[in-house]
Amino acid sequence: MSDSAASSNLKITYPEELPVSQRREEIAAAIAKNQVVIVAGETGSGKTTQLPKICLELGRGQSGLIGHTQPRRLAARTVAQRIAQELKTELGAVVGYQVRFNDKVSEHTAVKLMTDGILLAEIQRDRLLKRYDTIIIDEAHERSLNIDFLLGYLKRLLPRRPDLKVIITSATIDVDSFSRHFDDAPVIEVSGRTFPVETHYLDASADEEGDNARRISSLVQDIDAGSFGKRGDALIFLPGERDIREVAKQLRDDTELDILPLYARLSQAEQNRVFDISKRRGLRVVLATNVAETSLTVPGIRYVIDPGEARISRYSYRTKVQRLPIEPISQASANQRQGRCGRVEAGVCLRLYSEENFNLRPEFTDPEILRTNLAAVVLQMLNLGLGEIEDFPFINPPDPRMVRDGYKLLEELGAVSAKGELTQMGRRLSRLPVDPRLGRMVLAASERDCLAEILVIASALAVQDPRDRPSDKQQQSDQAHARFKHPKSDFLAWLQLWRYYEEQRQELSQNQLRKLCKREFLSFMRMREWRDIHSQLTIACRQQKLRPEPLPPEAENYQPVHQALLAGLLGNIAQHQDDREYLGARNRKLQIFPGSSQSRKRPKWLMAAEIVETSKVFARTVASIDPLWVTDVNPGLLKKHYYQPRWQSRSGRVMAWERLSLYGLTIADKRPVHYGPISPVEARELLIREGLVAGKYRQHPPFLKHNQRLVRELEELESKVRRRDLLVDEQVLFDFYNERLPTDCYTAGRLQSWLKKNPGSDKSLRLDKALLLARDPGAEVEDQFPDNLQWQDLEFRLSYQFEPGKAADGVTVTVPVALLNRVPRFRFDWLVPGLLREKCIALVKGLPKDKRKRLVPVPNYVDQALAQLEVDDSDLLVALSRVLGSLGGLQLSPADWSPAKLDDFYRMNIRVVDAEGRLLEQGRNLGQLIEQFRSDTRQSVGVDKGSSPAQEGIIRWDFGELPREWRFRQAGIEILSYPALVDHGESVAIELVDYPGPARLAHRDGVLKLLRLHSAQSVKYLRKQLLRGNEFNLVLAGAGQDRSMLVEDLIDAAFVQAMDLAHELPRDQSDFESTLKRGKGEVVSRANEVEAIVLNSLRVLAQVRNKLSTLPAGKWNDSVTDIGAHLAALVTSGFLSGAPADWLNQYPRYMKAALQRVERLSGQYPKDQQHTALLQSLAEPMKQAAHTRDKLIDLCPAAKQYRWMLEELRVSLFAQQLGTRQAVSQKRLQQQWLEVQRWLDENPH
Questions:
Q1: Sign, CA torsion 602/605/607/611
Q2: Which among 617, 636, 734 is positioned nearest to 316, based on CA atoms?
Q3: Angle ∠(95,98,102) on CA atoms, nearest 5
């Protein structure tokens, strides 16, 4: 409280040169008479320093302090110093000041200078402001958020404090609004100390449009040349730092004047250069942002250049972005700029726009309350209990949308409830002296054991960046600051810088620390301000019983720190899209600010301290985050979307995917959640439809087993008859369960519990067949659609599916791979009785029209035909052609039918399985499947090695008797196989062969190999002796034969003839030993006999080859080709052992016939062509049959006879004089082929 004696002894004087001094009596009278007075005057009028003295002279400051607010800390301190000097007292005595981190107020203080923020803070403790008897609100025209709130609060307070005097000081800007606000309070206008100002409107020409830098440079040069009058210092207003740098560069290139930038982020040293005119170097040009419009007076200014633009901070409630657009300034701002000159002498203002443009501009700049986020105001008002913000007496009431946005931000922070009521979190936030978002970070940090780190970061975010970046030393400053960067977070860079500064502060003196900061491009004053805010925050935390630990020396603690930061920055998260583009909250697109350490790294998810719109929307001070961290911050803000609910049989619950989103960003997706508690009705329906009706249940209760068995039986019946109208609709089943299950039964566990508590409930849930049947299919269905297909000694399982277009649609027969070669080739074409009739009808309808119309009505003819047919392994088309042709009196052949046009279900689907029943392949082409698995012997060996005769590595007959047949089961089917010895090169093996014919051939080769293994000495001897000598060498070379292969074949032939292997083969050890003993002595003699035949044959073959080589090139090509093919067929691999002995003896004659044919070719070419054509036509059927039936000649005696009859026919045609072994002709061969064809029909395998 002030001391009256001290103030009464003051000698108060007023500088006469100040305009306010001349009107002090009028002002004093107005103050004495009115509770509120508005004093309007330009900067320099003296209102700021003289009004407190007038109040003291009136006796104010005795019952309470004279509170004098300033918008800036610097102004509060300097004004207090000036008033104290004029009153000739010490600062802190009669006149004191209090700013954020400094308090120079004593018990003798009468006049207290302070920032408007300090007065706001005092309202929380002193609602009626009883400490004050007078309050002066200075620079009210700036209309900051704090000023507008104070003016509204004072309007409410004045009726309750009639003793309180309020003085509002303002520049001559919209003073009427202040008067109206305080019920038409008197306004006293005081002129400033100004000289005349000459204003020029210089609208840009078409050439100058868009090039401000060059235009301003030209005007400065004109000023320097005296074009506008006396030379003088110039103040140029520009929208931002980039514009200042561009114009400064242009001016330095074009002139040699002293160019001085001035903006808020500038270092203290560079700002001091602007105000210290003692060190001027000629004409000065100051390039300033709108910081120089009010309060701040740049000395010595004669010229002002005003481009008419400024960067105005505007908050968008739609995008939640603090925008900084460049806008045309208001008329009031333009006049403020004009007033910066003419302070020392007559001035000149050059406006770079037209007077018409000036007149169209708004009269005043929007107050801050209309263009900023109101969260802090709303929070304080709620905490102070000031009622609804809409009812608060602001001079300009804020947009209701901005108010709602403030509430939304507080709700995001957890400070207010969804109903707008202050929460416990909100009360705690209101007691922290920082922005609510920063306060929320601090409170979150206390819960995550990272309070020390967040106090550093939050206090850093509350001050201007202390890292200086001078325009002429940007690279050096960036290098100096690089050490503090963090690879993933700009926030953690603050911790690095703090640790470094604290370490240096403790080691260095104050003066050394200042020099260090200057050297390393750090603002000493801002670093000190950072520390002050940190201290204030720490004290505030202790008041809330939060005890921060000392900052860890190097620990990163990344996740907890950023989770705490997220608590205040939920609206500032973004997800990377592509290239530099990010999608932020509420669908806003943004980019990382280029100065960030993350601008090139582009994290997938980021969090930003602020999102600002300048030339683009930028995220500043960013860090990489995990989006899942968001889920723990304020779960109430998350939007939860549930989709794809599905019954999960394993857990017996309905599960759904959960998508979490925040402000339009998908934070997490496809999170499995239990859907039952979320939507019990829908979950219960899914339990019934998917679990009970569809049978997807892990452990079927007894009633469900019963019901599913009935449903399966009817579904199989539907598949058989190919109709889906036998089983009732699923809705009937759903209704059945829905009527009987309790409403809260939406999990398997609840169902099981209900069944236990209600013993009769299981029986009530059992279906009967009558309820399930929509219509009766008839009793004959089972016979028409059998479950098995019987063929000879084999039985194949049949299954049915009614799924048109699917692979297994129709009838499916399951065939073990070991039986694939033994299935009937045509039986499957006959399908089953229930489908055969429909297939035949479809086939008839596909006949050519001229034949189809002879078989109308088709169903009648088909029924008559089927009555005459027996289902067997014969070609269905051949059978239908025969019977229907007879019934309809027309000629039908298999070529008339179009089976390929039939639907797939009219062809049997063959399902090939392994021994365990696993599917190997399925298809409708039996031939392709047989070919695909022809070499697959995995199953032929048998699955039970313990009982099967199959074995490998045999070199002696020491395994007893080899049975002719072997039966075993595979995939549920009994299989008949034929054991045989099989040649494996150095040994033999016993394998199970599918058919007796191939088994006999394989067994002959296996027995031959085993005989050779038992006669190793004889084989060795024959290899050394056979086909030796010069004559054989010449013959072999002339015939083009390889000796080693021919010798092995010759030895095999000798063993076959000596052991009589062309007839009965041994099947037990005693027979084998008898065969070996009987023929062992004849092997060498037989070999010599065969050797003689080989020599005689190859001699002639060499002559034939020689004659062929001498024929003219290109002549008689068809005959020459036939001769070559004939010789290759005679002398092929294994011909010696494969040919019967009597036919092998004919080889020399066959060779001579070929020689005579070559010798006579030139004279009998036409006749040769005729003979060749005849032979080829007779050989073609054999060729075709051999292509489909492997080893046909060896298996079929008739085919073997046909083959040698063809040889004899060749002799009779080309060398008749050599004679034939038997009578042969074209007719005889055709008759023989009929025998071959009969054998093929009887042996389809």
A1: positive
A2: 617
A3: 120
pLDDT (mean) for 86-102? 87
Which one has a higher pLDDT value, 821 or 1077? 1077
The whole-angstrom distance between residue 363's C-alpha and the CA centroid of its chain comes to 54
pLDDT at 246 over 80: yes
Q: Pick left, alpha or beta for residue 853 (phi over 0 → left; psi -120 to 50 → alpha; otherwise beta).
A: alpha
Rounded-to-integer distance, Cα 492 and Cα 597, Å: 11
Nearest C-alpha neighbor of 130 from the set 81, 164, 105, 153:
164
Spatial distance between the Cα atoms of 378 and 386, rounded to a whole number of angstroms? 10
Pairing state between β 65-70 and 132-137: parallel
Report the length, in residues, of the chain. 1245
* Cα separation of the two ends of the chain: 123
Place of tokens 């009887």: 1242
Q: Contact, 653 vs 563, CB < 8 A?
A: no
**Whether the Cβ atoms of residue 720 and residue 786 lie closer than 8 Å to each other:** no
Write out the H or E segment, with its range, that includes residue 492.
helix 491-507
Strands 309-311 and 326-328, bridge-based pairing: antiparallel
Is 932's pLDDT higher than 90?
A: no
Q: What is the pLDDT of residue 943?
A: 40
Alpha helices in 448-482 (DSSP H): 451-461, 474-481
Distance CA 591, CA 622 (A): 11
Q: Which two tokens stand for residue 1189?
A: 């039936």
Distance CA 1081, CA 1057 (A): 12
Q: And the tokens for 1236?
A: 């071959």
Tell me the helices (H) and strands (E) count for the chain, helix number first: 49, 35
Q: What are phi and psi of 667, to 5 degrees?
A: -80, -40
Both structure tokens of 887: 């019934």
Q: Identify whether the C-beta of residue 97 lies closer than 8 Å to the C-beta of residue 104.
A: yes
Instruction: Give the separation between CA 115 and CA 213, rounded to whole angstroms.
Output: 37
- Contact present, 650 and 626 (Cβ < 8 Å): no
- Token look-up 């060795």 returns 1020
CA 429 distance to own-chain centroid: 40
SS3 346: coil
Is the bond into 857 cis (omega within 30 degrees of 0)?
A: yes
3-state helix, strand, coil in the chain (%, to 5): 50, 15, 35
For residue 742, report the phi and psi dihedrals to the nearest 5 degrees: -65, 160
Kind and range of the H or E run holding 333: helix 331-338
Name the residue with higher pLDDT: 562 or 795. Answer: 562
Does the CA dihedral 982-984-988-991 come out positive or negative?
negative
* Sheet of 966-970, strand order: 951-954, 988-993, 973-983, 966-970
- Average pLDDT (1077-1089) is 87
Strand order across the beta sheet in which 788-791 lies: 788-791, 794-801, 810-816, 909-913, 919-923
Round the CA-based radius of gyration of the chain to a whole number and report it: 55
Concatenate the DSSP letters of all residues of 532-554 into one string. Answer: HHHHHHHHHHHHTT--PPPPPSS
pLDDT bin (cut points 50, 70, 90) of residue 320 is low
The token pair that represents 504 in the structure block: 């240096």
Distance in angstroms (rounded) separating the CA atoms of residues 184 and 241: 42
Amino acid at 1174: L
Name the DSSP class of 976.
Answer: E
- Inform me whether the pLDDT recorded for 944 exceeds 50: no
User: Smallest Cα–Cα separation from 800: which of 726, 713, 874, 930?
Assistant: 713
How far is Cα 1055 from Cα 117, in angstroms, rounded to an integer? 120
The partner residues of 658 in beta bridges, in order of sequence, read 642, 671
SS3 580: coil
Q: What is the pLDDT of residue 501?
A: 92
Residue 232 backbone phi and psi in degrees, to 5: -170, 170
pLDDT confidence of 621, banded at 50, 70, 90? Answer: very high
Cβ density class 55-82: b for 16+ within 10 Å, e for less: bbebebbbebbbbbbbbbbebbbebbee
